[in-house]
Write a structure and sequence with these properties.
5 helices, D-Maltodextrin-Binding Protein, domain 2, five-stranded mixed sheet, 186 residues, alpha/beta
Length: 186
């Protein structure tokens, strides 16, 4: 499994959170959001009167919100781009990107070549990769998502090559989509 750095971006403005409000806004990566939400709950228990508002929306949102002063902390699940070097990044975890299948799906394993063929629309039926005779539903991340960039880099093709039936933004949306469709690959 490929491992990718997951970073958390802290804007300089985070250092000057208004003490009277005792509210810290954290936005960005949907990959980091569940971890950040759990950490926020623990922080709030130990720091009564302080509220941490965690919102997903993607790494680009985290950058944009931190830059615009809408967030005190921006979550990013990719390396900073050259035009983002005015921020400081801190690695809080490493994550992996995996292909998910519905538990009723009969695929035992997929090779990299099969995954590429499925995503490019060359392999369209589950039976062609060890499943039952049914059309494959390709679930892909929406354009601009960091997970999509990492996926495309790993398999060495472009998003314009992808023939997806469903585009999703948040990871949870992808999980629910695949769980509800026995022929989905996401």
């Amino acid at each position: 499994m490929n491992k990718f750095f997951v970073g958390i971006l802290v804007a300089v403005s985070a250092l000057s959170v208004n003490a009277a409000e005792k509210k810290i806004v954290i936005t960005g990566s949907s990959t980091i959001a569940p971890l950040a939400a759990n950490l926020a709950k623990a922080f709030e228990k130990k720091n009564a009167g302080t509220r941490l508002n965690v919102q997903a929306g993607g790494s680009s949102r985290g950058i944009a919100d931190a830059r615009a002063g809408l967030a005190d902390i921006g979550m990013v699940s990719r390396a900073l781009n050259p035009d983002e070097k005015d921020f400081m990044a801190f690695t809080v975890a490493l994550d992996g990107i995996v292909i998910i299948l519905n538990k009723k799906n009969l695929f035992e394993k997929l090779t990299n070549e099969q995954i590429i063929s499925i995503y490019k629309g060359e392999t369209k039926n589950c039976k062609d990769v060890g499943g039952k005779d049914a059309p494959i539903t390709v679930v892909n991340k929406a354009e601009g998502r960091s997970t999509l960039e990492l996926f495309l880099n790993c398999f060495k093709f472009k998003n314009t090559d992808v023939k997806a039936q469903v585009a999703i933004a948040e990871n949870e949306q992808g999980i629910k989509t695949v769980a509800g469709n026995p022929n989905a690959v996401g």
